[in-house]
Design goal:
The complex is a heterodimer. By secondary structure, chain A is an alpha+beta fold. Chain A is 48% helix and 10% strand. In chain A, strands 1-4-2-3 form a four-stranded mixed β-sheet. In chain A, α5 (109-124) crosses α6 (142-163). Residues 1-67 and 76-90 of chain A have low confidence and may be disordered. Chain B is mostly beta strands. Chain B has two domains: 2-145, 3-Layer(aba) Sandwich (Rossmann fold), CATH 3.40.50.10070; 154-412, TolB, C-terminal domain (Neuraminidase, 6 Propeller), CATH 2.120.10. The chains are: A alpha+beta, B mainly beta.
Chain lengths: 201, 417
């Protein structure tokens, strides 16, 4: 539990950092670059003496543009990250598949990052349960592939549990090679079929 | 019900005359260099369908690889003619239609010694003709080699014909495919009990993969265990009293043992690594299985008590589907090579590895005939998965009709009593 608490703390910091960074990027985007097409047009207008604006070209020209930026302080709430997330209205989380290398069940960094965002979604939607389906490509026997699918599903389940999802909300099933999403004897199909698929319950 | 399937409606077979004094072994099948028996097979006299009797017998004996076929299709002659043509044995017979069915008489002659080796009369329905031809073929093999023939054995398999994988049964030669399950789910990995009365198979019919036993006497299905965990694969002990199978807990697949109907479960393997596809040796001493404990899937053996763990395969990245020959001397398996999976055999200690099939596509899931002279396997060599039969002596390979859909996971039955 202490590990969990410690982790959770770190995780909140991570989320806030992410929000801050994305906020900064949001502001930057509103500033026209002198080298951009828009910036060049402004420069040209000034060069031709047609411009009557006093504003420096590296400042927002249109008052409207500057007013689009809404800035506010992030409320730090004691309850934790889920509160901060719930302040962002209308966020839709899309469940997507996680993919694996041939005969492997390791989670790569992209998969772990995805599971971390999935965790935060699960953490703010406590009524949701997830069925984790393990799948394999059709090379090898159906029996080995059932075992491999189970191992993949369990690898994902374990990671979500480590992140803090109550195991009672997670179920697993292996379909092995039996439910391909892409038919064919080539790497593209195999790669698509080596997956863990999620079903929200 | 299965009795009906196996023996069909053959009302009676009467042995008209059998020369029981012939202890002579005409074909020594234990010798790899044995001379092929020169034989002539005449079309049976009688109705049109007579040609299907002799054609089936001809196909069977040809497939056995033990005969040198002297006669052309439809050729007839007397004993001196066949002798001069080089034949030493002759099969001929007749078929007649009775109001209640068909009557078939079939004979095997030793031309050189001028002896009748077999004389059989069969009463049955028209639909039984193939089965009767198979029975007579078995008799021919028995009297010439002293060994049981395999022509009345069956092959259980999985077909995707209707879109999902269901369990099927067919004759050894791929004819008379019969659908055994119709649950609309996914059904896998059939294995015959050694008394040939039951089939163990994996099914998703209850939601997740679990093992079931189908009783071929009444087609009833019962769950092998009451476990909530995934169970799959599996094979029977030689006395058909026990089953070794895979159960998966927390992503780890290990081997377990149970007695069907008893409920108690005993762990056989443990630790990291997937342990799947167990196959019990005919003498009961050893269980071959596939494990990736060494990094990738390879074949191991272990005793029922969990002792003497031995790794048998080392080459290649993927060795799987161990299948014991009925004499326990050989293990067939499939191995991933550059062009795909190929069937290999090795001795029970892992020595004397020999490649049996050469693709193209993937050759997988071998199963031995009960006389050890053939293997069936699935192959994608012509596109969709289909079941093929190979004669281990001659390498002659034939494609089995099966369901007409994608067929896989063949399991050859033991002899029926």
């Amino acid at each position: 539990m202490s590990f969990f608490a410690k982790f959770n703390h770190k995780f909140i910091m991570l989320i806030f950092s992410a929000i801050l960074i994305s906020g900064c990027e949001g502001i930057k985007k509103k500033v026209p670059d002198a080298n951009s097409q828009f910036g060049q047009e402004i420069n040209q207008r000034f060069a031709e003496g047609q411009g009557k604006e006093e504003t420096a070209p590296n400042e927002p020209l249109s008052p409207g543009e500057g007013q689009d930026i809404k800035e506010e302080d992030i409320k730090v709430v004691d309850e934790g990250a889920e509160k901060a997330f719930s302040d962002e209205p209308g966020e839709v989380f899309t469940l997507k598949d996680i993919h694996f290398k041939f005969d492997k069940s390791d989670l790569d960094s992209d998969s772990r990052a995805y599971l971390e965002t999935m965790f935060s979604w699960l953490d703010q939607n406590r009524s949701i349960k997830v069925n984790i389906e393990g799948h394999a490509d059709d090379r090898g026997t159906s029996e080995y592939n059932l075992a491999l699918g189970a191992r993949r599903a369990d690898a994902v389940k374990r990671y979500l549990e480590i992140l803090g999802v109550d195991s009672i909300r997670l179920s697993t099933i292996s379909y092995g090679e039996e439910m391909p999403i892409e038919e064919g004897q080539h790497e593209k199909a195999w790669a698509a079929n080596r997956r863990v698929h999620f079903e929200g319950i | 019900m299965i009795k009906k399937t196996i023996t069909l409606f053959i009302l009676s077979t009467t042995c008209l005359y059998t020369n029981t004094a012939t202890a002579k072994i005409y074909i020594d099948i234990s010798s790899p260099s044995a001379r092929k028996m020169p034989i002539a097979i005449e079309n049976f006299t009688g109705k049109d369908l007579s040609s299907s009797v002799s054609a089936t017998i001809r196909r069977n004996l040809d497939l056995s690889g033990l005969f040198h076929m002297i006669s052309e299709e439809g050729e007839t002659g007397d004993a001196p003619f066949w002798l001069s043509a080089g034949a030493e044995t002759l099969i001929k017979g007749s078929i007649s239609v009775k109001n209640s069915g068909v009557l078939i008489e079939a004979f095997l002659y030793d031309l050189a010694r001028n002896k009748t080796l077999l004389a059989k009369r069969y009463h049955g329905q028209e639909s039984d003709i193939r089965t009767i031809a198979h029975r007579f073929s078995d008799e021919v093999i028995k009297i010439l080699t002293g060994e049981k023939g395999i022509f009345n054995t069956k092959i259980a398999f999985i077909s995707k014909k209707g879109g999902n994988k269901e369990l099927y049964l067919m004759d050894f030669d791929g004819k008379n495919a019969l659908k055994l399950t119709n649950n609309g789910s996914i059904n896998l990995s059939p294995k015959w009990s050694k008394d040939s009365k039951k089939l163990l198979f994996t099914s998703f019919k209850g939601g997740k993969a679990a093992l079931y036993i189908k009783d071929l006497a009444n087609y009833n299905e019962i769950a092998l265990t009451k476990e909530k965990h995934m169970t799959m694969g599996g094979d029977w002990s030689p006395d058909s009293m026990k089953v070794v199978f895979t159960m998966t807990k927390r992503g780890d697949s290990d081997l377990f043992l149970t007695e069907p109907g008893n409920g108690a479960i005993r762990r056989l393997t443990s630790g990291w690594g997937l342990d799947v596809s167990p196959a019990w040796s005919p003498d009961g001493e050893s269980i071959a299985f596939v494990s990736d404990r060494g990094g990738n899937p390879n074949i191991y053996t272990i005793t029922e008590e969990g002792k003497d763990l031995t790794r048998l395969t080392f080459d290649g990245k993927y060795n799987t589907s161990p299948a014991w020959s009925k004499d326990g001397k050989w293990i067939a398996y499939s191995s991933l090579q550059k062009g795909g999976f190929r069937i290999y055999i090795m001795k029970a200690d892992g020595s004397s590895k020999r490649q049996i099939t050469f693709g193209p596509g993937n050759d997988e899931e071998p199963s031995w005939s009960p006389d050890g002279r053939f293997l069936v396997f699935s192959s994608s060599r012509e596109g969709k998965k289909t079941i093929y039969l190979i004669n281990m002596g001659t390498s002659k390979t034939i494609k089995l009709d099966g369901s007409g859909g994608a067929d896989m996971s063949p399991a050859w039955s033991p002899f029926f009593n």
